[in-house]
From TrEMBL:
Protein's UniProt keywords contain Transcription: yes
Highest taxon listed in the record's lineage: Bacteria
Pfam families: LacI, Peripla_BP_3
GO molecular function: DNA-binding transcription factor activity; transcription cis-regulatory region binding
SUPFAM superfamilies: lambda repressor-like DNA-binding domains, Periplasmic binding protein-like I
HTH lacI-type domain residues: 23-78
Transmembrane segments: none
Keyword terms: DNA-binding, Transcription, Transcription regulation
Protein's UniProt keywords contain DNA-binding: yes
Protein name: LacI family transcriptional regulator
């Protein structure tokens, strides 16, 4: 007996895929009680006029059947050099997502594809709206970064027969093949904690972040949870400064901890890059020094952060490799095993000033600037 294969964040189970029957132009025509030519005129806005009554019948039938035009057939009728990919990103103001989007766009161009980007704001409804809009215009594949509405996105793309590459992390089960292209976030948490404990002899360190539905309504709580798991594997206990995933939340939570009257921790691991600067500000506003009193390690710092007052020690993901694998996942789906597990990619530690490792890592050209 065939069954539809499903997958959770951890991967896919076994079983045969059952692809749902795609509604055809003839199905819409039959339900509306018109000819296929009339359906074509309505959906393509011509070349012949159609009465408002017939147009309403056709559109109602198309909606009922969830009909979508065949993107491959349409592409054959309109040959062009540049084809299109869709990309969903939660927040382009964050350095990690901006870097991923930029690298994915570059990789797509090498394969003669332009990228349409939807900035979703961790809004599940907006994710689905962008998905439907992109599949309607005829994309060759969809790349989804940090999705929170994974089940509906996967169903929509499966109906439209559009391959999907899941990147960084996702929330909820996936329908059909579900490889995830991501860094090893658990290893990232281990590396950050181990650097403070083993390299800097910090005996008391805390993790700044939140990863439950109560802590975080919108945000990448899955990645933070995995980083916290790695942190605990080194420290042996969970000393957690609870916060949502906003800079304001981190500032408030860290400030409250440092002003509570108890001894401050010797080190902090900050779960997201977006909260690192707020955490450092909370430390200095409490009258403490970074790294003199509290050493700090974060994640995914951008190169622009090299010009801050204190450069952040950060565990980084292999952005270029992730982008290459994601593009290959959607464009080479016919020639690759799309049900195979993806091994999380290794991460690296980029030492900065916030942990006390290096006094100055600004570009050498900065020191060569002429004196005024």
């Amino acid at each position: 007996m065939n069954k539809t294969r499903t997958a959770s964040d951890g991967g896919c189970d076994t079983g045969a895929n059952v692809t749902p029957k795609r509604p055809t132009l003839a199905d819409v025509a039959a339900l509306a009680g018109v000819s296929t030519a009339v359906v074509s005129y309505v959906l393509n806005d011509g070349p012949r006029p159609v009465s408002d009554t017939l147009r309403a019948k056709v559109l109602a039938a198309a909606d009922e059947l969830r009909y979508r035009p065949d993107r491959n057939a349409r592409a054959l009728r309109r040959p062009r050099k540049w084809r299109q990919l869709g990309l969903l990103v939660p927040d382009l103001t964050l350095p990690l997502y901006a870097a991923l989007a930029g690298r994915l766009e570059i990789e797509a161009r090498t394969r003669d594809h332009l990228t349409m980007i939807g900035n979703t704001g961790y809004d599940p409804d907006r994710e689905l709206e962008f998905t439907t809009a992109f599949t309607d215009v005829g994309i060759d594949g969809l790349i989804v970064v940090g999705a929170v509405n994974t089940p509906e996105i996967s169903k929509s793309c499966r109906r439209a027969r559009v391959p999907v590459a899941w990147v960084h992390n996702r929330r909820g089960p996936v329908e059909g093949p579900a490889p995830l292209v991501c860094a090893d976030h658990v290893a990232a948490g281990r590396l950050a904690a181990a650097h403070l404990v083993e390299d800097h002899d910090c005996g008391d360190i805390a993790f700044v972040g939140g990863f439950t539905a109560d802590d975080v309504e919108y945000g990448d709580r899955e990645t933070v949870a995995q980083r916290h798991e790695g942190f605990v594997s080194i420290t042996g206990s969970s000393t957690l400064i609870h916060t949502d995933l906003t800079p304001e939340g981190a500032y408030r939570a860290v400030s409250a901890r440092l002003r509570s009257g108890t001894a401050p921790p010797q080190g902090l691991v900050v779960g997201t890059n977006g909260q690192a600067a707020a955490t450092m500000r909370a430390v200095t506003d409490a009258g403490l020094r970074v790294p003199g009193d509290i050493r700090i390690v974060g994640f995914d710092a951008g190169t622009n952060q090299n010009f801050g007052q204190i450069t952040l020690t950060s565990v980084k993901q292999p952005i270029d490799t992730i982008a290459q694998h994601a593009i290959a996942d959607v464009l080479d789906r016919a020639t690759t095993d799309d049900s195979a597990e993806r091994t999380p990619m290794p991460v690296t530690l980029d030492r900065g000033e916030s942990c006390g490792c290096r006094p100055d890592i600004r570009p050498a050209a900065l020191h060569a600037a002429p004196k005024l």
